[in-house]
Amino acid sequence: MFPAATARAVDLAALVERRLTEVEADGLVFPAPRGGWARRSNYGRNTWDPAASAVGWPRMPAGRWAWTFHSLRHVFATWALAQPGLRIEDVSRLLGHSGTRVTQDVYVHVRRRGGHGLLLGLRVERSAS
Description:
Layout lengths: L11 H11 L17 H16 L13 H13 L6 H8 L4 H29 L1
Helix pairs in contact: 4-5
C-alpha cells in the first residue's frame, strides 16, 4: 500500500518488515523512547519537529508547521481511496474509523471526483507523450 522505496532508494518494505520482527504481536511499532505510548507533546518535540526540519517543510508565519500529522493523514486517506480495487472497508480500518460511514462522510468528495480526476490524468499523460 505504500511505495516500495523512497526517492533516495530507501527500501520501505524492508524497514517495515524488520521492525515488525522486533516487536511482539501486541506491541507498539513506534513506542516512546522508554516504552509505552508516546505522549503527543513529546512526539511533536522528539519526532515530528526534527523530521519536518530535516526534510525542509515550510512553516506558517506564526512558526507552526504548514503540514501537520493530521493533514498527512488526510493525504494518505485521499490517496488510498483513489486506488483502484482498494475497498473503502480497508481504508476505513486503516484509518481507525468506527465504520465505513465515518470514512464516507469525511471523504465523500474523493469518491465523487475520483473518476473525473483519473480521466484528466490520462489526458495529461497522453498529451505529454
